[in-house]
Amino acid sequence: MQDYARRCETGNGTVQNALRSLIEAGAVQVEARGHKGTFLVQADYRKLREIAGLASLLGLMPLPYTRRYEGLASGLYEAVRQSDLPFSIGYMRGARNRIAALHRGQADFAVLSRLSAELAVAEGGVVIVMGLGPQTFVSQHGILLARPEYTGITDGMRVGIDPQTLDQAWLTAAECRGRQVELVEIPYSHLLQRLREGQIDAAIWNLDELSSGTMEIYSRPLQSPEARRIAESSSEAVLVIDANRPDLERLLPEIIDPALVRRVQDEVLEGKRIPSY
């Protein structure tokens, strides 16, 4: 009790009354173990969130500009809907931006590719709660080229890169390694336009977004073995939380079934379900 009172800058009696209220509300169960003290044996994180005024849940994911992302958003909504927990999704470009929003307390969880999530975990401050399976984030990445005679990224090219989009930045760096190119910083959503305008010669892109025959932009497979290896880990969507939110680490697996999310996403991709998010 003294530790909690010190952390909360309040008296022991206040902490004892608060704990008694949580027990009476059925939010926690404790067990007295003699001289060892009192131990928490069970916690209902949904009730704890309600008591704390955090009844609703907010997730962040990329803008739903592809059918795959629309399916992912629809799947997350369907999974949480079955738990009767109020839920909403916010849309934000760039894995780094979504991670920063988590640290600011602006969202409960963020959707990243596994590659971005593992990079973020290595940097510290976030925890991976669950993966949703291969190709739930993207189907594949490729090289987009401004002219049909280009066969890949070569010396002298201007290559678009978005440092805020971790996957795209890492894939671009890997594909360009050993080549003398100019890296041009451009927001991911503007890369296609810059290619069309001739301001850059090439860019790494999520091929889910490319409709064949609709644009004068040409795609080629990734050529670098390193880039192809990285691309494999960027296809899976994962949910991450701030490392200081253990309540969410327990709550999210209780309410989000990855198999259900994938099933809904597949139905959207196959045209069997209208996206709903």
UniProtKB/TrEMBL annotation:
Gene3D superfamilies xrefs: Periplasmic binding protein-like II
Pfam family, one: HTH_41
Bilayer-crossing regions: none
Record's signal peptide: none
Source organism superkingdom: Bacteria
Uncharacterised protein YhfZ C-terminal domain sequence ranges: 44-277
Domain spans labelled YhfZ helix-turn-helix: 2-40
Official protein name in the record: Transcriptional regulator
Organism for this UniProt entry: Symbiobacterium thermophilum (strain DSM 24528 / JCM 14929 / IAM 14863 / T)
